[in-house]
């Protein structure tokens, strides 16, 4: 990804894109041919039955040389023998048959195809070669190809089932699903949580069409309000995040469940930063940057999809009335986990009105325990009305327990649900009914309540989903101004080392050219010169290996600190020279301040990231670090620091004077400026430690790793 604003428009000549018309032919074809249809094959018969079950209104033709008709549909020996050119084809045949069929379809002008066969790019060199033929045919003709290795797509809005498995007729909803896995797709489509889908598409190998293409289509589709995805990887990050930005601008939340959270870490990079920038962290921060809602389970995805379909909440201030003190304690416990949610005090007029209805309660505070209120049938709707009208309340919470429906408390259940529906009809604020046990409300009831403006969620899911809905609607801050850096000096130093990593004097000079303060240093080649340098700088001092090709001095016992006399400096220098060092650094011994690490790490696919964390010898042991994609926005450095455990020390723990946080923020922004200025020329920057003092910051060591191709590019 480029280091410029990631949401900027990518060059469509450099990305694989299919025309919007042909993509539309995939989701809304007027005619379809099913290649491999058969009355004796489960899949071959099921695909045709799906058209009948769903009520597809277009023209359907079967393709199989053994039959003249199947299930009432005319059958032809090949695509070219059909008396019309179908807009889309569904290929149920194996790999060997699918390749010439795709090529034939491309020659005939078929606009879209679904290839379900396996054995392509996922199956070694032979499969990759077969997939390349599919790609070549699609690119030459502009045909929109879904798959291979997929189960197809379902469009309930237009009743189009280009799908290999059975498709259940459903009332179309407004939530679209993109899945890079068949199993998760099946589980989500069959959910019993009340989410109604508009479209479902499985990506397969993404040989031609990828997740970015489907995201683009759903952003533009007026029937879609929320876009969900089960994702394993992003093959075209720049275009994907551009479309994610378009979705946010269009008011369409994108909810993603990213798989692979326990995958083995990548091979450690030359810099410490590489060990801290694990792939999942990179994805999570990019998702956050682009306003994508991140979930960790299928259940969370469904709950978030429900919450983000509901009325938008202006904020996270909750107002609640629940007829149980025990349940209210659970409500308070769960809601306290989320920073965006709170229970503010009611305004005085609300408290007074509630007191008139509930004179026996010791206090009328938010949330309200409405158990035992006299004349509940009349009072409960009024209680909800008073709470939702309070200016301090953004979201109204109430109670629903369907487990009482089969008991004498059924009338009580009806009272609570009717009260919520009535409140929703009188307000534009979101109204949420909390159930004690997740998933206990029948899905058709959840859908019915959602149509009436009432969201139904379980106790565990509710607050997590509401938190995500509130945060998604918060404004995204603009990109911060870029501090000036001496780009010519930075590029010159990278060129001088021919793309090789470097540390020592050139690394400190590199930081200084970017405006990051560095410690005063002397570079010497003899014991006598080391003593003279220490005398000039003043004791105590540090003597360390200064050779530019030594990347990690601490691991080599190459840093000797707190030297207080010429004799100690002499002994230290003699030891390091004897160990093979050709050059030594002599520096003042920096003792005051908090050790931090600043890093810049570039991922081959996802681009550059800025990292900050606790530094020194504790960097990897404590793992107290956070990161953001390069191109920092206003307030992001401050947010990064607030996420660290070491932030308490920076702000002055146990009576200590606070460190210069503004100077640290300035150094973070200058590191970000390096990423923006050098782009793909820099692989990583590792500043460890950076001492944050009461006044100012100072870097005492650094490692610079250029991108491998930098030397050739600069010649």
The major beta sheet can be summarized as: 7 strands, mixed
Q: What is the residue-averaged pLDDT?
A: 89
Tally of strands: 30
Name the CATH superfamily classification of the largest domain. Succinyl-CoA synthetase domains
Q: Provide the CATH topology of the largest domain.
A: Rossmann fold
What's the domain count?
A: 5
Q: Kindly name the structural category.
A: alpha/beta
> What is the end-to-end distance?
23 Å
- The CATH class name of the largest domain reads Alpha Beta
Oligomer: single chain
- Level-2 CATH architecture of the largest domain: 3-Layer(aba) Sandwich
Strand proportion, as a percent range, falls in 15-25%
What gyration radius follows from the Cα positions, in whole Å? Answer: 32 Å
Low-pLDDT sequence parts: 1-17, 263-277, 711-715
Describe this protein with a few key phrases.
single chain; 715 residues; Rossmann fold; 5 domains; 7-stranded mixed sheet; 25 helices; 20% strand; disordered N terminus
Topology:
Layout: H1 20-27, E1 31-35, H2 42-54, E2 59-63, E3 69-70, E4 73-76, E5 88-91, H3 95-108, E6 112-115, H4 124-141, E7 144-146, E8 152-155, E9 160-163, E10 175-179, H5 182-189, E11 197-202, H6 211-220, E12 226-231, H7 237-249, E13 254-258, H8 272-276, H9 279-289, E14 293-295, H10 298-309, E15 318-322, H11 325-335, H12 348-357, E16 368-369, H13 376-389, E17 395-399, H14 410-425, E18 431-435, H15 443-451, E19 454-458, H16 459-472, H17 487-496, E20 502-503, H18 504-513, E21 522-524, H19 527-537, E22 541-545, E23 559-563, H20 566-578, E24 584-588, E25 594-603, E26 607-614, H21 619-622, E27 625-629, H22 636-642, H23 647-650, H24 661-678, E28 682-692, E29 697-699, E30 702-706, H25 710-714
Parallel strand pairs: 1-2, 1-5, 2-4, 5-6, 6-7, 10-11, 10-12, 12-13, 13-14, 15-16, 15-17, 17-18, 18-19
Antiparallel strand pairs: 3-4, 8-9, 8-11, 20-30, 21-24, 22-23, 22-24, 25-26, 25-28, 26-27, 28-29, 28-30
């Amino acid at each position: 990804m480029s280091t410029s604003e990631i949401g900027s428009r990518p060059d469509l000549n450099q990305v694989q894109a299919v025309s919007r018309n042909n993509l539309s032919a995939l989701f809304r074809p007027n005619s379809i041919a099913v290649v491999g249809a058969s009355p004796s094959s489960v899949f071959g018969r099921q695909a045709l039955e799906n058209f009948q079950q769903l009520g597809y209104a277009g023209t359907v033709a079967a393709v199989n040389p053994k039959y003249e008709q199947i299930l009432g549909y005319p059958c032809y020996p090949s695509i070219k023998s059909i008396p019309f050119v179908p807009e889309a084809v569904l290929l149920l045949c194996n790999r060997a048959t699918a390749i010439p069929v795709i090529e034939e379809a491309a020659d005939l002008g078929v606009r879209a195809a679904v290839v379900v066969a396996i054995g392509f790019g996922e199956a070694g060199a032979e499969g990759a070669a077969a997939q390349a033929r599919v790609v070549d045919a699609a690119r030459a003709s502009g045909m929109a190809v879904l798959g291979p290795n997929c189960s197809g797509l379902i469009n309930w809005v237009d009743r189009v089932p280009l799908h290999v498995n059975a498709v259940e007729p459903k009332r179309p909803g407004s939530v679209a699903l993109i899945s890079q896995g068949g199993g998760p797709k099946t589980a989500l489509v069959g959910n019993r949580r009340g989410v109604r889908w508009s479209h479902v598409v499985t990506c397969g190998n993404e040989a031609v069409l990828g997740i970015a293409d489907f995201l683009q289509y759903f952003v533009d589709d007026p029937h879609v309000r929320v876009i969900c995805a089960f994702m394993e990887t992003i093959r075209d990050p720049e275009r994907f995040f551009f479309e994610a930005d378009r979705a946010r601008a269009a008011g369409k939340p994108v909810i993603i469940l990213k798989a692979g959270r326990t995958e083995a870490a990548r091979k450690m990079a030359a810099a410490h930063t590489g060990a801290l920038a694990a792939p999942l962290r990179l994805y999570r921060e990019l998702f956050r940057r682009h306003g994508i809602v991140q979930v960790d389970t299928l259940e969370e995805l469904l709950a978030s999809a429900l919450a983000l379909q509901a009325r938008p909440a202006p904020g996270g201030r909750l107002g609640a009335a629940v007829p149980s003190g025990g349940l209210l304690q659970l409500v308070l416990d769960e809601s306290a986990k989320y920073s965006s949610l709170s229970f503010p005090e009611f305004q005085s007029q609300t408290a007074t009105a509630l007191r008139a209805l509930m004179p026996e309660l010791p206090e009328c505070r938010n949330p309200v325990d409405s158990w035992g209120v006299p004349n509940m049938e009349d009072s409960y709707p009024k209680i909800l009305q008073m709470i939702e009208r309070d200016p301090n309340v953004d979201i109204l919470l109430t109670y629903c327990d369907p487990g009482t429906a089969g008991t004498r408390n059924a009338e009580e259940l009806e009272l609570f649900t009717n009260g919520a529906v009535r409140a929703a009809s009188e307000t534009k604020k979101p109204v949420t009914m909390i159930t004690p046990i997740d998933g206990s409300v029948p899905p058709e009831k959840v859908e019915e309540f959602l149509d009436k403006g009432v969201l139904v969620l379980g106790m565990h899911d509710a607050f997590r989903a509401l938190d995500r809905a509130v945060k998604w609607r918060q404004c995204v801050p603009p990109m911060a101004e870029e501090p000036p850096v001496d780009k010519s000096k930075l590029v010159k130093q990278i060129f001088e080392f021919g793309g090789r990593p470097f540390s020592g004097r050139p690394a400190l000079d590199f930081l200084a050219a970017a405006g990051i303060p560095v410690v005063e240093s002397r570079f010497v080649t003899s014991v006598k010169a080391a003593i003279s340098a220490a005398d000039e700088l003043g004791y105590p001092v540090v003597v360390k290996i200064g050779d530019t090709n030594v990347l990690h001095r601490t691991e080599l016992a190459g840093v000797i600190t707190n030297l207080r006399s010429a004799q100690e400096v002499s002994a230290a220098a003699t030891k390091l020279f004897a160990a093979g060092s050709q050059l030594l650094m002599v520096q003042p011994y920096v003792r005051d301040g908090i050790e931090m690490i600043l890093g810049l790490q570039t991922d081959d696919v996802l681009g550059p990231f800025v990292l900050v964390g606790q530094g020194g010898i504790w960097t990897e042991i404590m793992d107290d670090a956070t990161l953001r994609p390069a191109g920092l926005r206003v307030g992001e450095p401050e947010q990064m620091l607030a996420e660290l455990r070491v932030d308490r020390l920076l702000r002055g723990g146990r009576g200590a004077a606070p460190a210069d946080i503004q100077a640290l923020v300035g150094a973070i922004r200058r590191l970000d400026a390096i990423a923006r200025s050098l782009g793909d020329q820099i692989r990583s920057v590792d500043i460890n430690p950076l001492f944050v003092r009461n006044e100012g910051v100072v870097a005492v060591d650094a490692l610079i790793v250029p991108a491998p191709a930098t030397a050739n590019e600069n010649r």
